[in-house]
Design goal:
With 326 residues, the chain is mostly helical. 54% of the residues lie in helices and 7% in strands. The strands form two sheets. Strands 1-2-3 form a three-stranded parallel beta sheet, sandwiched between helices. A two-stranded parallel sheet has the order 4-5. α4 runs parallel beside α14 and α10 runs antiparallel to α13. It is globular. The two termini are 30 Å apart. The structure holds iron/sulfur cluster. The site of iron/sulfur cluster has 13 residues, from α11, α12 and α13.
Length: 326
Amino acid sequence: MSRIFSGIQPSGELHLGNYLGAVRNWVRLQHQHPTIVCIVDYHAITVQYDPEQLRVRRRDMALSLLAAGIDPNVGTLFVQSTVPEHTELAWIFNTVAPLGELERQTQFKEKSQRQESVSAGLLTYPVLQAADILLYHADLVPVGEDQVQHLELSRVIARRWNAHFGAGDDYFPEPKPLLTHTPRIMGLDGQAKMSKSIGNTVSLLESSEQIWEKLRPAVTDPKRVKRTDPGTPEVCNIYHLHKAFSAPATVEHVAEQCSTAGWGCLDCKRVLHGTMMEELVPIQARAKVLSAKPSLISDALAAGTEKCKTIARETMKTVREKMGIA
Ligand code: SF4
């Protein structure tokens, strides 16, 4: 059966954007495939960061993932730096990764423009990503469209390594993207994708009141100036959030009420707030339990590390043998 690998940056508490865009899908997939979820702290240090904050954010991310439904008895959750084989394999892959393709990566070009000083780590980020995936022979990677280019590079690296050292054997599989069909969730300012760095997020763990305070003034269809103006649901972020959280009959009702000016945007948001909290309340309850008993988090991570180390050691033993460095 195909193994799934997914990585997430230790950015602290999950927000609605990364929950709907990725994590909710992983929670479902863990029941269909062997699934590894990795908090990629070595990726997070490719740009400037605060070490103390990194520690806190890694912990908060683990708590959020477990609360959101990643079940350590079903899937595997661990922190990247606790399995040192990731960096060993990344170094090895650096020796076969094509420099020109690394330099052409769109994310590298975008991120490097925002940095005063660009590290080699930022350039070779996708090589570490290839190591993350291939260390576990994962053959399916749930990704959004913006990650397909990185995954293509993992495929190139697997092919090149197999050609050099596989001795006619495709030791590393070429991982395939499992495209996540989720709408692009915009921030509540309606300006850009929901992102912590922009500050337009809603955390999964915010209280019902805090979420309503953010939802109430959220941007909607700009053509609905007056309550009597009919709207176009498809252009409205609130409608897309309804599609993510509300039942199909409610989504239909929203579209009808919006396009006929049957209700105002506040009515629409109140319904969304209700359906959203139905999903978030159990997540928040689990988060409370985890906060009260942090050993549940450290035990889950330790079990994940042990499982991953067993696979990673086996992979590296074979890699070293095939490369003549054992
Ligand atoms: S009624 Fe709802 S979907 Fe229509 S513009 Fe207002 S908030 Fe958006």
